[in-house]
Amino acid sequence: MTAVAAAGMRQVSVRALRAHWPSAAGVFLTVVLAAALMVASGVLIESGLRESDPFSPTAMMLPAAMGSFAGVALMLAVFVVSQAFAAALRDRRREFALLRAVGATGRQVRSLITTEVMAISAVALLAGGVAGWWGAGALVPLLTSSGIVEPGFAPSPSPWPLLGAAVLLLPAAWIAGRLAAREMARLSPTAAVGTSTADARALSPGRIVAAWICAGAGLLVTLTPVFLPGAVGGAAGAASAFLYLIAVGLAGPALVLRAATWLTRRRSLQGHAATVLASANARGFSRRLTAAVVPLALLVSLGSVQTGVNHTVAQAAAQQLGDALAADLVWQGPSEQAVDAREALAGAPGVEAVATTGQAMVQVRTDSADEDLPFLDGLNWEAGAVTVLEDPAGLVDPGVTAGDMADLAEPDTVAIAADGLTLPGMGVGDRLELRWPDGTETSPRVVAVYERGLGLGGLIMSPATASSSGGATVYVETEPGAADAVAASTSDAGFPMIPAAEYVEAAVAGGSDDSRLSNVLLMVLLAFIGIAAANALVIATRSRTGEFALLGRLGATRRQLRAMLGVEAALVGVGAVVIGTLTALPGLIAASLAMVRGFSLGLDPVFYASLAGATVVIAFLGVAGARLRARA
Amino acid sequence: MTHPSAVSATAPLTTNRTAVSLTDVHKTYPGGAQPVHAMRGVTLAIAAGSFTAVMGPSGSGKSTLLNVAAGLDGPTSGRIVIGDTDVSHLSADALTQFRRRHVGFIFQSYNLLPHLTVAENLRLPWWLDGRMADARRESELLAAVGLSDMAHRLPSELSGGQAQRVAIARALATQPAVIFADEPTGALDSHTGAAILDALREAVTAFHQTLVMVTHDPQVAAAADEVVFLADGAVVDRAAGLTAPQLSQRVLELGR
Predict the structure, then answer these.
(1) What is the pLDDT of residues A598-617, one digit of tens each?
(2) Core vs surface per residue A291-309: b (16+ CB within 10 A) or e
(3) Is A446 helix (H, G, I), strand (E, B) or coil?
(4) How many angstroms separate the CA atoms of A607 and A304, rounded?
């Protein structure tokens, strides 16, 4: 192709972008936000990994706190960006069919689309990088107040987060463009000869197969918590909801078609122009409707799964801690007083047995070192808290599944939780590699594996192996009926105690110290999806100006058109809430079955209601900007 | 409007050559309970430089014939030769390339890209072909359809008649072996329609093009060198020299 001719095709692109600037701007904004999310979390994670003192809060907590956020943000960003490109390109089907009719080969249409998609993505990525850097800075005060970073923390500048976002987002955009282009290029040129702009009806066999695969993979992931309870199960909930939603997105047009056909056959709905038109539109434009419903469903689904599973995990932790403790009373204080407290409490009348726990910070090697990327060494170590347990009477029952807790009395030994996220496949006799705050490295032998990891933490050692720092806890078992008397007498002696049930409640509430941060991060994600979904709806509505004009020419009043759009918005909103809830349920149910006694979805009714409400509001906002002219 | 003397580099085609030939072409649309047989064994030869009108009742397969003959749609079976090339077995991309070089198409719905100017729409076939637009030919064509002063307008700023003139100029742009027109005046009022047909015929004559046009209008068909009648997906008659009322009568009979 000569340079001049290439310039000609470029002009076709530029003109197209100018003509479709609102949808191009919408997609651009979506990619900017997606890139900003990824860059912001990347910047914070990298800053944590680069922190020179591995036992500072920044190094211990920042990568972990942002890592789980980044995982979800990543799935979301890729999903939302591909959806946005697909929606924007779908509205230009006729234009591409026209090009085909005039003599553009499938290849030319593909390259036109790819060039456009990549140009938008590249510019948006840079803008998103700047926004993400700014966003990371804006999160610092919240991170500081949550104790996740030290005061004075500043993110370290580096090109890696932007490169990472580019490596993940650009291929996603490219694939979305390719998939859309494949559909366009396959269009028979005769499609342009006719004036019909309705969606192609049949789904390709590949798409149907992909939908089944995603649904199947979703089911597999849903079942993970059954085999791997604990935190891993929590992560699985979100992943399964995603997979179900992707399956819905793939099979959506066929599902919408069925639902709409069913709706139009309802006698009660016939006779109202608005409902008849709206359900006919749903039937004729099943892809467009799917594109509107899926991002909104994602909002409901992700919001429900994230909050629900978090709540279930907290509940499971409380249950495990309660089950593990045979104590009646609990004393808490600084570790310097622990020895005195233990002595005093053990000697108090009415006390049968005491046990002491303290905490020590440690880093566990989870992966072997990679010499090529030394700064990534931080990724190979995971921060952990060791429960230092002195319990000769067995007041704390971690639920041993292998080995014997009594062996902890030997130095250089450790017990590990069976559902530990970081140590899959470790068993009795294996050795862990640990790094301590004073710089020493040890490799204690695993002597027991226990199941109450959510309640007691992932590692247990005896004072023979580790010395505790910070707070200490003394558990006290009293003679039957003597609890009140013991509590009163030890309180007078200077060691006030609280009932064990109260302690369990407080311990679990303390575990959600950083819940404000995770709430803020969840809100950021939900806002991102909300904007992307509203954007997709506005694009879809804008592209229908011609359709509204046609209906106007046929005698539809503005009122009727508004009513029709209202019914459609209701269909979209309610459909999104139903699909979002249905895709979230399996993950929530599995988490509940795997982790807690009794059944609980963990969903906060008020939060769920506001999610559903926001979804319906967005659906209506999306059509509010429709340009209706009664006469056209 | 334009005189043949103003036209350059146009190889004169002799009328005894065949521009398009179809041999036993079938086209079946697999649909629902019963497949639709839109073409049932059509055999037809179109002489180069001629003007052929295709008539027939609604649903007789006129548009399918045009789409298949023009390579917009593939035949289910049969052979189609345009110029010297058998297009029935070309791959999709090869067919598209062949089509944009050797076939012009004028649609009822104009099919101009809305965001490209008149001149850019005209240049599109060259651009798609990876060639430089021929500026001289471009201005010749615009002059031929009477749009010289509207080169920079967008399609939304044109009347229906003007838009169809752009489409005619675009179909002529690459000097195709044959131009297919599917009711090019169907969306226009009769006065504008007549003017467009005049422009089309003059351009086709001036540039020595072959024209195959589907039409409902006996007046239009009466001006053709030959009229092909279709019914139920098959050629049922060919006629030359009939008057408009006679043609009208013929189509009515076929529709019964």
Answers:
(1) 777 778 888 899 999 999 99
(2) bbbbbbbbbbbbbbbbbbb
(3) strand
(4) 8
Q: Which residue has the tokens 């918590």?
A: A225
A104 touches chain B (CB under 8 A): yes
In-domain check, residue B11: no
For chain A, positions 142-201, list CB contacts with chain B under 8 A: 188-190, 192-195
Chain A residue numbers touching B92 (CB-CB < 8 A):
105-106
Residue to substitute from A96, A99, A102, A184, interface B, most B β-carbons within 10 A: A102
The secondary structure of residue A480, as a DSSP letter, is T
The 10s digit of each residue's pLDDT in B47-100 is: 988 999 999 888 888 888 988 888 888 889 999 999 888 988 888 778 888 888
CA distance B176 to chain A (A): 12
Domain of B251?
Answer: 16-255
For the stretch A368-403, pLDDT in tens is 555 555 555 556 677 777 888 887 777 788 888 888
Are A101 and B116 inside 8 Å of each other by CB? Answer: no
In a domain, B33, yes or no: yes
Asked if the structure places residue B80 within a domain, the reply is: yes
Report the domain count for chain B: 1
Cβ <8 Å between B114 and A19:
yes
B93: closest CA of chain A, how far (Å)? 5
Which residue shows structure tokens 């990994």?
A: A49
CB contacts of A12 in chain B (<8 Å) are 113, 116, 120, 124, 127
Token pair in block for residue B130: 């990876």
Q: Indicate which CATH number applies to the domain containing B235.
A: 3.40.50.300
- In this prediction, residue A14 has a pLDDT band, given cuts at 50, 70 and 90, of confident
